[in-house]
Design a protein that fits this description.
Elements lengths: L1 E4 L5 E11 L7 E8 L1 H19 L3 E6 L5 E4 L1 H7 L17 H10 L1 H5 L4 E8 L4 E10 L7 E8 L1 H19 L3 E5 L6 E4 L1 H7 L3 H4 L13 H13 L4 E7 L5 E9 L7 E8 L1 H18 L6 E3 L6 E4 L1 H7 L5
Antiparallel strand pairs: 1-2, 2-3, 4-5, 4-8, 6-7, 7-8, 9-10, 9-13, 11-12, 12-13, 14-15
Length: 326
């Protein structure tokens, strides 16, 4: 290969083939044939850039023929994992490091691709030899006039699986709580999570509540007033808002609103709804007892036997000593 000037004077890559010819009765000669390979060089450069971009990533990238499963390409991560040196994968295939059953399962998975039922597959596998869970993205490529091949990307999802397990434990804990827990996006107001107590109250499945907003819980919902109420949380003026309301069955509920900001995720509102009907009844009962004791002129003292500290004095006792409730 060399560089030659074309008609416009620009240098272009040329592939020159030399052939020696000896014809009886004639002088020996060398025949030179030049071919402009600009497009080939440009294509090779693109391929090299393409491969370099794959080598920069952590994901394993494989290309292999559909007919015999022999590898035609691996990026650096794939070769390192498979234990191959540069181009050491030539003539190798998944059969060299997967069991017969694993190969059969793989071929079974590729049937929708081969039949045209789908253009791409995404599934998870766990190979003991690799010791980690993988997410596999598999695509069938059929270049015109060339052999069909598989293009596969293996992504290590170990950290994601750990996170999913932690989330599952967290949700299980929330589902065991009797407090109703609602999470929703402050921009769209769409719910992102309801624990079991909340879902049971409203009667929605997960698929249903992801399409709902607080407007679906309140008969006469005023979005303007609702957004004005949570604005102090969004602006940072308040960390939480607590207020009381009446439930659909006439029960007294305490509602706590908080803004949570998970790292690298969209912020969301957290709402805790607690039935405090019994608590309110108990408070009313205690208040009536106090009123009865305050009406007597006798001095009444209630104190803890452990440290002798007062927990209650009626009005006559406080007036006698000149004390107040503080």
């Amino acid at each position: 290969q060399t560089l030659q000037k074309n008609k416009s004077g620009a240098l272009v890559p040329v592939e020159v083939s030399l052939k020696y010819m000896a014809v009886i009765g004639e002088d020996e000669r060398i025949v030179a044939v030049g071919q402009d390979i600009s497009e080939r060089v440009a294509a090779n450069k693109e391929i090299q850039n393409f491969k370099s971009s794959f080598d920069l990533g952590k994901n394993e990238v494989y290309m292999f023929w559909t007919d015999n499963l022999e590898y035609m390409y691996m990026n650096q991560a794939a070769m390192k994992n498979a234990g191959y040196l540069k181009s050491g994968f030539k003539g190798k295939s998944p059969r060299d490091h997967l069991s017969g059953k694993q190969i059969q399962r793989f071929l079974k998975r590729t049937e929708p691709l081969m039949s045209g039922g789908t253009s791409i597959l995404v599934y998870e596998v766990y190979y003991k030899s690799k010791g980690r869970p993988l997410e596999v993205t598999l695509q069938l490529i059929k270049p015109e006039g060339d052999r069909a091949r598989f293009f596969a990307i293996h992504r290590d999802i170990s950290e994601r699986k750990v996170a999913e397990a932690e989330i599952a434990q967290f949700k299980t804990t929330l589902d065991l709580m009797r407090v109703e827990i609602y999470m929703y996006r402050p921009d769209t107001l769409h719910f992102t999570y309801l624990n079991r107590a909340a879902a049971n109250r409203v009667g929605w499945t997960k698929e249903e509540y992801l399409t709902k907003t607080p407007a679906d819980l309140v008969e006469k919902f005023d979005e303007g007033r609702f957004r004005a109420r949570i604005e102090p949380l969004l602006s940072g003026a308040k960390k939480s808002i607590i207020f009381e309301s009446t439930g659909t069955n006439g029960e007294i509920i305490e509602i706590t609103e908080q803004l949570i900001k998970p790292k690298d995720e969209n912020q969301r509102m957290l709402t805790l709804v607690r039935d405090i009907t019994e608590q309110k009844k108990a408070q009313k009962t205690i208040e009536s007892y106090k009123q009865a004791l305050d009406s007597t002129q006798d001095l009444v003292f209630i104190f803890r036997p452990s440290d002798l500290k007062f927990t209650y004095l009626n009005r006559a006792a406080m007036d006698h000593f000149g004390w107040d409730e503080q």
